[in-house]
Protein backbone atom coordinates (compact mmCIF):
# COMPACT_ATOMS: atom_id res chain seq x y z
CA UNK A 1 0.00 0.00 0.00
CA UNK A 2 1.20 3.49 -0.85
CA UNK A 3 2.90 5.49 1.89
CA UNK A 4 3.07 2.76 4.54
CA UNK A 5 6.47 3.85 5.85
CA UNK A 6 5.44 7.51 5.96
CA UNK A 7 2.10 6.70 7.61
CA UNK A 8 3.62 4.56 10.37
CA UNK A 9 6.31 7.02 11.46
CA UNK A 10 6.05 8.10 15.11
CA UNK A 11 6.07 11.81 14.33
CA UNK A 12 3.29 11.45 11.76
CA UNK A 13 1.00 9.72 14.27
CA UNK A 14 1.67 12.33 16.95
CA UNK A 15 0.95 15.26 14.66
CA UNK A 16 -1.68 13.71 12.37
CA UNK A 17 -4.83 15.27 13.85
CA UNK A 18 -3.22 18.64 14.54
CA UNK A 19 -1.96 19.00 10.98
CA UNK A 20 -5.11 17.85 9.23
CA UNK A 21 -7.96 19.01 11.43
CA UNK A 22 -6.83 22.31 12.87
CA UNK A 23 -7.50 25.71 11.31
CA UNK A 24 -9.80 25.28 8.30
CA UNK A 25 -9.29 21.54 8.57
CA UNK A 26 -11.92 21.53 11.31
CA UNK A 27 -14.51 21.99 8.57
CA UNK A 28 -13.24 18.79 6.95
CA UNK A 29 -13.54 16.86 10.19
CA UNK A 30 -17.06 18.19 10.77
CA UNK A 31 -18.16 17.05 7.30
CA UNK A 32 -16.57 13.63 7.59
CA UNK A 33 -18.04 13.05 11.04
CA UNK A 34 -21.48 13.95 9.69
CA UNK A 35 -21.05 11.64 6.69
CA UNK A 36 -20.16 8.68 8.90
CA UNK A 37 -22.88 9.32 11.48
CA UNK A 38 -25.59 9.88 8.84
CA UNK A 39 -24.67 6.65 7.07
CA UNK A 40 -24.26 4.35 10.08
CA UNK A 41 -26.90 5.63 12.51
CA UNK A 42 -28.65 4.38 14.54
CA UNK A 43 -25.60 3.00 16.32
CA UNK A 44 -26.79 1.67 19.66
CA UNK A 45 -25.79 -1.99 19.84
CA UNK A 46 -24.57 -2.09 16.23
CA UNK A 47 -21.42 -4.13 15.63
CA UNK A 48 -19.06 -1.98 13.53
CA UNK A 49 -15.57 -2.34 12.08
CA UNK A 50 -13.52 0.68 11.10
CA UNK A 51 -10.66 -0.09 8.73
CA UNK A 52 -7.66 2.25 8.80
CA UNK A 53 -8.97 3.83 11.98
CA UNK A 54 -5.82 5.92 12.46
CA UNK A 55 -5.97 7.97 15.65
CA UNK A 56 -9.52 6.82 16.39
CA UNK A 57 -11.43 10.00 15.70
CA UNK A 58 -14.38 8.05 14.24
CA UNK A 59 -13.92 4.95 16.41
CA UNK A 60 -14.27 6.97 19.60
CA UNK A 61 -17.21 9.01 18.28
CA UNK A 62 -19.15 5.87 17.38
CA UNK A 63 -18.35 4.21 20.71
CA UNK A 64 -19.72 7.28 22.49
CA UNK A 65 -22.98 6.74 20.59
CA UNK A 66 -23.39 3.12 21.59
CA UNK A 67 -21.68 1.14 18.83
CA UNK A 68 -19.82 -2.06 19.60
CA UNK A 69 -16.80 -1.09 17.52
CA UNK A 70 -13.40 -2.42 16.50
CA UNK A 71 -10.80 -0.08 15.03
CA UNK A 72 -8.15 -1.74 12.86
CA UNK A 73 -5.00 -0.08 11.57
CA UNK A 74 -1.57 -1.11 10.32
CA UNK A 75 0.23 1.55 12.38
CA UNK A 76 0.96 0.78 16.04
CA UNK A 77 1.75 4.46 16.57
CA UNK A 78 -1.65 5.56 15.25
CA UNK A 79 -3.39 3.00 17.45
CA UNK A 80 -1.53 4.30 20.49
CA UNK A 81 -2.95 7.75 19.81
CA UNK A 82 -6.41 6.22 19.45
CA UNK A 83 -6.17 4.46 22.81
CA UNK A 84 -5.22 7.74 24.47
CA UNK A 85 -8.20 9.42 22.84
CA UNK A 86 -10.55 6.64 23.97
CA UNK A 87 -9.26 6.88 27.53
CA UNK A 88 -9.78 10.64 27.59
CA UNK A 89 -13.34 10.18 26.30
CA UNK A 90 -14.09 7.46 28.86
CA UNK A 91 -14.96 4.77 26.31
CA UNK A 92 -11.91 2.50 26.57
CA UNK A 93 -14.09 -0.35 27.82
CA UNK A 94 -16.49 -0.07 24.88
CA UNK A 95 -14.18 -0.42 21.89
CA UNK A 96 -11.20 -2.42 20.73
CA UNK A 97 -8.18 -1.31 18.76
CA UNK A 98 -6.33 -3.94 16.74
CA UNK A 99 -3.25 -3.88 14.55
CA UNK A 100 -3.96 -5.70 11.31
CA UNK A 101 -3.88 -5.81 7.53
CA UNK A 102 -7.00 -4.69 5.65
CA UNK A 103 -6.17 -7.21 2.92
CA UNK A 104 -6.58 -10.11 5.37
CA UNK A 105 -9.17 -9.15 7.94
CA UNK A 106 -8.97 -11.41 11.02
CA UNK A 107 -12.74 -11.91 11.32
CA UNK A 108 -15.22 -14.53 10.13
CA UNK A 109 -17.73 -13.91 7.35
CA UNK A 110 -20.71 -11.66 8.17
CA UNK A 111 -19.26 -10.78 11.57
CA UNK A 112 -20.16 -7.05 11.57
CA UNK A 113 -23.33 -5.12 10.86
CA UNK A 114 -21.35 -2.35 9.19
CA UNK A 115 -17.80 -1.93 7.92
CA UNK A 116 -16.42 1.45 6.95
CA UNK A 117 -13.17 3.13 5.92
CA UNK A 118 -12.36 6.82 5.64
CA UNK A 119 -9.21 8.24 4.07
CA UNK A 120 -8.24 4.72 2.98
CA UNK A 121 -9.02 4.02 -0.65
CA UNK A 122 -6.78 6.80 -1.95
CA UNK A 123 -3.86 4.75 -0.58
CA UNK A 124 -5.04 1.34 -1.76
CA UNK A 125 -2.95 -0.44 -4.41
CA UNK A 126 -5.59 -3.16 -4.87
CA UNK A 127 -8.96 -1.53 -4.09
CA UNK A 128 -10.99 -4.45 -5.43
CA UNK A 129 -9.45 -6.92 -2.98
CA UNK A 130 -9.86 -4.53 -0.05
CA UNK A 131 -13.50 -3.89 -0.89
CA UNK A 132 -14.16 -7.62 -1.22
CA UNK A 133 -12.73 -8.16 2.26
CA UNK A 134 -14.92 -5.42 3.66
CA UNK A 135 -17.93 -7.06 2.05
CA UNK A 136 -16.96 -10.50 3.33
CA UNK A 137 -17.00 -9.52 7.01
CA UNK A 138 -20.14 -7.38 6.80
CA UNK A 139 -23.66 -8.78 6.94
CA UNK A 140 -25.32 -5.55 5.83
CA UNK A 141 -23.46 -2.29 5.14
CA UNK A 142 -20.19 -1.03 3.66
CA UNK A 143 -19.32 2.67 3.68
CA UNK A 144 -16.23 4.45 2.34
CA UNK A 145 -14.99 7.61 0.67
CA UNK A 146 -12.87 8.27 -2.42
CA UNK A 147 -10.92 11.16 -3.90
CA UNK A 148 -12.13 11.88 -7.39
CA UNK A 149 -10.66 12.19 -10.85
CA UNK A 150 -11.55 15.33 -12.86
CA UNK A 151 -11.55 17.45 -9.71
CA UNK A 152 -9.34 20.02 -8.00
CA UNK A 153 -7.78 17.13 -6.10
CA UNK A 154 -5.68 16.34 -9.16
CA UNK A 155 -4.03 19.78 -9.05
CA UNK A 156 -1.99 19.05 -5.94
CA UNK A 157 -2.12 15.26 -5.91
CA UNK A 158 1.46 14.99 -7.13
CA UNK A 159 2.72 16.95 -4.10
CA UNK A 160 1.42 14.54 -1.45
CA UNK A 161 4.19 12.58 0.31
CA UNK A 162 2.63 9.18 -0.43
CA UNK A 163 0.75 9.85 -3.64
CA UNK A 164 -2.99 9.39 -3.99
CA UNK A 165 -5.27 7.22 -6.08
CA UNK A 166 -8.13 9.09 -7.73
CA UNK A 167 -11.37 7.43 -8.84
CA UNK A 168 -14.06 8.11 -11.39
CA UNK A 169 -17.67 7.32 -10.56
CA UNK A 170 -17.73 4.55 -13.16
CA UNK A 171 -14.70 2.90 -11.54
CA UNK A 172 -16.32 2.94 -8.11
CA UNK A 173 -19.50 1.44 -9.51
CA UNK A 174 -17.47 -1.35 -11.13
CA UNK A 175 -15.73 -2.01 -7.81
CA UNK A 176 -19.06 -2.21 -6.00
CA UNK A 177 -20.46 -4.62 -8.57
CA UNK A 178 -17.35 -6.79 -8.39
CA UNK A 179 -17.66 -7.03 -4.61
CA UNK A 180 -21.38 -7.93 -4.78
CA UNK A 181 -22.38 -4.64 -3.21
CA UNK A 182 -25.44 -2.59 -4.12
CA UNK A 183 -25.15 1.20 -3.97
CA UNK A 184 -27.70 2.69 -1.59
CA UNK A 185 -26.61 6.30 -1.51
CA UNK A 186 -23.83 8.60 -2.64
CA UNK A 187 -22.80 12.14 -1.77
CA UNK A 188 -20.24 14.39 -3.43
CA UNK A 189 -18.58 17.38 -1.78
CA UNK A 190 -15.60 19.75 -1.61
CA UNK A 191 -14.94 21.56 -4.85
CA UNK A 192 -11.94 23.08 -3.09
CA UNK A 193 -9.43 20.42 -2.08
CA UNK A 194 -8.63 19.54 1.52
CA UNK A 195 -5.18 21.08 1.29
CA UNK A 196 -6.68 24.51 0.68
CA UNK A 197 -8.76 24.40 3.87
CA UNK A 198 -5.89 23.10 5.99
CA UNK A 199 -3.70 26.01 4.88
CA UNK A 200 -5.92 28.84 6.13
CA UNK A 201 -7.46 29.85 9.49
CA UNK A 202 -10.97 28.68 10.29
CA UNK A 203 -12.47 32.20 10.19
CA UNK A 204 -11.21 32.61 6.63
CA UNK A 205 -12.10 29.07 5.61
CA UNK A 206 -15.76 29.35 6.64
CA UNK A 207 -16.85 31.80 3.87
CA UNK A 208 -15.04 29.69 1.29
CA UNK A 209 -16.82 26.62 2.62
CA UNK A 210 -20.20 28.33 2.33
CA UNK A 211 -19.48 29.18 -1.30
CA UNK A 212 -18.17 25.67 -1.87
CA UNK A 213 -21.42 24.17 -0.60
CA UNK A 214 -23.55 26.55 -2.67
CA UNK A 215 -21.75 25.71 -5.93
CA UNK A 216 -21.45 22.07 -4.94
CA UNK A 217 -25.22 21.74 -4.80
CA UNK A 218 -25.47 22.49 -8.52
CA UNK A 219 -25.17 19.76 -11.19
CA UNK A 220 -21.75 21.11 -12.23
CA UNK A 221 -20.56 21.17 -8.65
CA UNK A 222 -21.58 17.57 -8.15
CA UNK A 223 -19.55 16.49 -11.18
CA UNK A 224 -16.44 18.40 -10.07
CA UNK A 225 -16.49 17.48 -6.38
CA UNK A 226 -13.17 16.20 -5.08
CA UNK A 227 -14.61 13.79 -2.48
CA UNK A 228 -17.38 11.20 -2.65
CA UNK A 229 -19.05 9.16 0.10
CA UNK A 230 -20.41 5.75 -0.92
CA UNK A 231 -23.00 3.83 1.10
CA UNK A 232 -23.59 0.26 -0.09
CA UNK A 233 -25.39 -2.84 1.11
CA UNK A 234 -24.35 -6.48 0.87
CA UNK A 235 -26.36 -8.35 -1.75
UniProtKB/TrEMBL annotation:
Gene3D superfamilies: Vaccinia Virus protein VP39 (3.40.50.150). Residues 48-138 form the Methyltransferase domain. Pfam families: Methyltransf_25 (PF13649). GO terms for molecular function: methyltransferase activity. Its EC number is 2.1.1.-. It comes from Halomarina salina. This is Class I SAM-dependent methyltransferase. Keywords: Methyltransferase, Transferase. GO terms for biological process: methylation. Coiled coil: none annotated.
